Amino acid sequence: MGYRLIPTATFEHALAHLDRHVVRRIAEKLTLLEGSTHGILPLAFTPKGLEGLCKYKVGEWRVLLTVSESKKEIVLYSVKHRKDAYKNL
């Protein structure tokens, strides 16, 4: 059994403001996460209150997410360009 992707409203809002080809590329990469968590990296720093937050790289874009191994769920929080992804965490 694979992982279930759970997008938040913030993630869907951010995705709606991107170009179609970027959205398609992100969607293709996210479907790979349903089978395996390969490529998900923990943040180099963990802001207080955001322990467990991870990143998934899609070209110049970063998807911020958490993984629940026990529930087999991946919660998608945000997608941002790499230069803005870690600001205001």
Calculate Rg over CA atoms.
Answer: 12 Å
Mean pLDDT across the residues is 94
Biggest sheet: strands, sense, closure? 5 strands, mixed
Tell how many strands the DSSP assignment holds: 5
Total separate domains? 1
- Taking the alpha carbons of the first and last residues, their distance comes to 32 Å
Q: Strands of the largest sheet, in order across it?
A: 1-5-4-3-2
Query: What is the number of helical segments per DSSP (H or I, 4+ residues)?
Result: 2
Instruction: Give the strand content.
Output: 25-35%
- The proportion of residues forming helix, as a percent range, comes to 10-25%
Structural category is: alpha+beta
**Uncertain regions spanning at least 5 consecutive residues:** none
Topology pattern, helix = H, strand = E: EHHEEEE
Shape: globular
Describe this structure in words.
The protein is built from 2 helices and 5 strands. The mean pLDDT is 94. The chain has helices at 9-16, 20-33; strands spanning 4-7, 40-42, 54-58, 61-68, 73-81. The chain is an alpha+beta fold and 89 residues long. Strands 1-5-4-3-2 form a 5-stranded mixed β-sheet.
